[in-house]
Amino acid sequence: MPSLTLDLLRPSPSAPVRPAAPARLNLAGLTREELRTALVETGAAPADKAKIRAGQLWRWIHHYGATDVSAMSDISKEMRAVLGERFVVARPEVVERQISKDGTRKWLIRTAPGIEIETVYIPDVGRAGALCVSSQVGCTLNCSFCHTGTQPLVRNLTAAEIVAQVQVARDDLGEWPSPKEDRRLSNIVFMGMGEPLYNLDNVAAAIDIISDNEGIAISRRRITVSTSGVVPELKRLGEETQAMLAISLHATRDELRDTLVPINRRYPLQQLMAAIRAYPGLSNARRVTFEYVMLKGVNDSPADARALIKLIAGIPAKINLIPFNPWPGSAYECSSWSAIEAFAAILNRAGYASPIRTPRGRDILAACGQLKSESEKVRASVRRRLELAQG
Ligand code: SAH
Ligand code: SF4
Hints:
Blueprint: E1 25-26, H1 32-41, H2 47-63, H3 77-86, E2 87-88, E3 93-99, E4 105-112, E5 115-123, E6 129-132, E7 136-137, E8 155-156, H4 159-173, E9 187-190, H5 200-211, E10 223-227, H6 234-241, E11 244-248, H7 254-260, H8 269-277, E12 288-294, H9 302-311, E13 317-323, H10 337-349, H11 375-389
Parallel strand pairs: 1-2, 6-9, 9-10, 10-11, 11-12, 12-13
Antiparallel strand pairs: 3-4, 4-5, 5-6, 7-8
Helix pairs in contact: 1-2, 4-5, 9-10
The structure holds S-adenosyl-L-homocysteine (SAH) and iron/sulfur cluster.
């Protein structure tokens, strides 16, 4: 009897070819408008019912944190089946989660191959705790003291990828349904990887979603966008998002700022300060935050402190002195504690209260400016493999 071998890997020509199931659209990070359009375009709801249906889905996704259509109990079983065929409500993969001794948490979130995003939760900042979100993977700018700046831009994050960072943090902190009081995650700061004003459309759409009252409901006054100073976009940031503004100042003279924050060569201090003064909605209740990284022997003298006060005179402002967070290969040192205190004392005397930002999460490399995506390492390993393959 001839032996029979089965080749399980290759289908026989007569085997039926099953078409791959079409990928279902993820609703988790869509704007209200996109949600409505998706319902109409897929035939899940007629145009006249889509707004109400979208509102229902919205509350499930953004108020209850639902990740499964079948859990949406006020939608009929038949309708849930229709929705389930067309859509998912999915979270991206959390590749790594670290918790620091001081309670800081860091997540590495993968949304697509090579797209890895770092997000950090810092307790006792803002009203209760702040989430530091990323707006890009990498950065096109290269501020000389910033770790992210050593990584080339991989790409802008979508609004859904920005919102996903908040959803992942909320999942982990157990904050669904969205609490009105006693939140652990009360503030959002765009101080992770990337320059938010080079991705303003997606940042603005994400802020619309995050601040929506029937969802995550973090007020726009508790959302801060930090920029290195992309002057032409400042007005639009204020008008479209009403977010609080933070400026990475770090130097009060063009000559020095040109080297620390090179975008200063394009938009020098005089232009930057004029755009800040014109930022929509500034008042004593809505102040600009000036971030100032303390670099030993570079920008930390008493004369620098006095120049800072002079430069920002008349602007409703807070100042955040950030002790420099060193990273492997960085060319700077953090100022001595006594230099930082002396600098802060001069600012205090001028009316700026306790401006030193305590470094948090240093043990898990979660502090400001230390975020650098693992995807760079991944790309390097792929490159190495390709080189090997090519001999
Ligand atoms: N690109 C934006 C937002 C992300 S950076 C911006 O530059 O504002 C967030 C803050 O961390 C900025 O104020 C930045 O200057 C600061 N920062 C970057 N590297 C740092 C480091 N190594 N130590 C301390 N602060 C740093
Ligand atoms: Fe980019 Fe901000 Fe880092 Fe500068 S400080 S390189 S703008 S992330």
